[in-house]
Amino acid sequence: MPERIISLICNPNNPALSDVREKVDKTLRALDLFVQHSRELADNVAWEARVDTQTTQGNGYTDEQIREAIIAAIGGAPIDVNLLPSDLSNGIRRKDLLVADMDSTIIEQECIDEIADFAGIKSEVADITKRTMRGELDLETSLRKRVGLLKGLSSSVLQKIVDERLTLTPGAQTLSATMKANGARLVLASSGFTFFTDRIAKKVGFHEAHSNTLGIANDKLTGEINGPIYGGADKARTLLSVRDALSIAPESTMAVGDGANDLVMIAEANTGVAFRAKPAVAKAADCNINHGDLTGLLFLQGYALSEFHGALNLE
Q: CA 97, 103, 105 angle in degrees (round to 5)?
C-alpha cells in the first residue's frame, strides 16, 4: 500500500504539539489510516508518523486530503503539516545537496531594500521587490530598475549593512552544521549580490555561493550589474550542475526559497521547500515551513534533535 510520512513541525519558541497530538491521532483513526510507526523528533516541537494512505477498507486518500483533515483538526495551531514520500519508497531521505535562496530565507532581510534605505528610497524599492517576489514583475527588468535607482551611493554602505543590518534566520547555522557533518554539499543561490552572499556563505558555513555582482567605480555604485542577471533558471542550473559534478543522486537533493524566482529550483529538487513563502511558491513546493525555523528542514529529513550539530535557536 502507498506510504507517506506525516510531519508536524512548530517553532521551537512556540512549542505546540502536545496540545494537538490527541486530535491528530483521532483524525487518523477517523480516516481509518494505519500508522506503521511514529516518533518524536523533538519534544513538543517535531513529530512524524509513517502511514498507509490506503485505508483498511481499500479506500485511498490523496496527500492533500490527509493534510487538510489534520489542519482542520488542529485548528489555528501554529504547526506546519507536511506529507512526504516514505523513506522506504523514496530511497534517500537525508539529502546530500541543499541549494538555498539567501534573502528572506537564510537571512531575514532583503539586501537590496537595505541598500535602498541608505539611499532614502527604501519604500519605493521595497514595493518593487515585493511585486517581483510575488511574480508580478520579471526579475531582470525589476532588478535592473532597482539597482539603477542606487546609482551614486557610496559603496561603503555595503559593509555597514553586513555589520549592522543583516541577521541570520534562526536555525540557519544548525541546519548547515548538521548537514555538513553528514556529508552534504551546501550552496547559496541568490538573485542578490556577491558582496553579501560571499560573506553570508562563509558565516553560515555553506560551501559555495552564486549571485549577481554590483557595479562599483570610484567607491560608488554605478547603478548597473556586471554581467548577465543570475535569476531563477540559473538557480536551477546551479542545482543540476553541482548535483551532476558530485554524482549526487537526484533523489538526494533539496532546495529552499520564498520567492517566484525560486520556483524552477524548487521544482528541480527532489524535495522543494517553501520557507515562509509567497502563495505561488507555497502552492508549488513539496513542503511548506511557515511556523518553524530553518531546523524544520532537518526535521523534514528525519533528523532528531539528538542528531543536531548545534541547538534549537542557536542563533
A: 55
**248 phi and psi angles, rounded to 5 deg:** -90, 135
Which position has the higher pLDDT, 135 or 27? Answer: 27
Question: Stretch 147-164: mean pLDDT, rounded?
Answer: 96
Bridge partner residues of 289 (DSSP): 275
Q: Is the pLDDT of residue 197 over 90?
A: yes
Minimal CA–CA distance to 253: which of 197, 301, 194, 302? 301
Distance CA 45, CA 40 (A): 8
Nearest one of 242, 232, 265, 102 to 184, comparing CA atoms? 242
Helix (H, G, I), strand (E, B) or coil at 154: strand
Across 33-61, average pLDDT: 87
Nearest-angstrom CA–CA distance, 124 and 142: 12
Cell of 300: 523534514
Type and span of the H or E element at 122: helix 122-133
CB-CB neighbours of 225 under 10 Å: 18
Of 227, 223, 15, nearest to 211 (Cα)? 227
Instruction: Tell me which residues are annotated as active site.
Output: 101, 103
Q: Give the span between the Cα atoms of 302 and 315, in whole angstroms.
A: 22
Residue 198, pLDDT > 80, answer yes
φ, ψ of residue 92 in degrees (nearest 5):
-130, 120
Q: Is 293 exposed, middle or buried (0-12, 13-18, 19+ CB in 10 A)?
A: buried
Give the type of residue at 196. F
Closest C-alpha to 7, from 82, 73, 103, 66: 82
State the CB neighbour count (10 A cutoff) for residue 269.
25
CB 148 within 8 A of CB 128: no
Comparing 251 with 55, the larger pLDDT belongs to 251
The pTM of this model reads 0.94
